[in-house]
């Protein structure tokens, strides 16, 4: 439902928006290094990168959109923050409480040019909410758009990057989700930019302007590029932000979750410290996902090192769902301080069939070697040879179930496990 609402608003408003942010006047910050080989706006676009005081590890938190859409207010935001504490989510590492679209009034302040928080929704203002979130030891996120309006029609930040970044910093904002709706036609791109240089495309420059504006405030802000996988963002995203959306919105269905895993699996070389492919907000607690599909949803986001932003009314999570999203071993892999790279697909055996998404993944952490197995079909026994796991070789190995912490035994040369329909096995492996 979220994708249809966002895109519907975007398309309707996009048809009405005139090119209010012309190329000659849109940049609100100056370049730190112009290139003589570039022309037009690219020649003067800012090149400064994102702060490395934040964003080293993929974000853990919550976002309001999937739970409440536009029906938000400070009571709901602060309720989520307090539930981080009472449900043990903060202890598990979750820290960002993020406000999505629909938080401001529909027009900017006439004298300051600033976006104005809707006083009927946020009577304490964003700064007042930030103070209360910070008092809990958590961080606050806000939402804007690299277009003239947000997806729901509220003021966007294109052409107003400096004034908006200054406001966000003054309010104590720690995280910015920056969407991609209502882009004027003169800020769009041809099918392929000159020299296939997507970093200097109009799309990238819209985001680079906000990077520079955030940097100028002096306050480190985790910058999330909600660019829907456009403009080959995985090629340049780490030069502009800390994470970047790889697709349109995920929905609470197996087909949506599996398709996003498949799409992301093609671009895992871009994932490392300060550099994360964002597979979108979580749907655990929403829709009709089976228990096994919710486990896979969480596990895949964890082992592929996507940001994990919960997207439901936290009051409604049951104990089983809480156990999934607080699983200590999967979160430890996701947040590993030594190894920044994700698990990647490998061929389990010489005769293993090809699937979409891939079923077998292997990765390293500071605790050892891990294998993750997604069953894309009905319940079946899955087998892999230790010698096919990168870095293992053949021999005898101890295998531990990461979901339960249970030791499964010692095995020679290969390992087999029964995996339920659409479930994921998560294994930690050490040489015996």
UniProtKB/TrEMBL annotation:
It comes from the Eukaryota. GO terms for molecular function: alpha-galactosidase activity. Residues 1-21 form the signal peptide. It holds the Pfam family Melibiase_2. PROSITE patterns: ALPHA_GALACTOSIDASE (PS00512). InterPro entries: Aldolase_TIM, GH, Glyco_hydro_27, Glyco_hydro_27/36_CS, Glyco_hydro_b, Melibiase_C. PANTHER family: ALPHA-GALACTOSIDASE B-RELATED, ALPHA-GALACTOSIDASE/ALPHA-N-ACETYLGALACTOSAMINIDASE. This is Alpha-galactosidase.
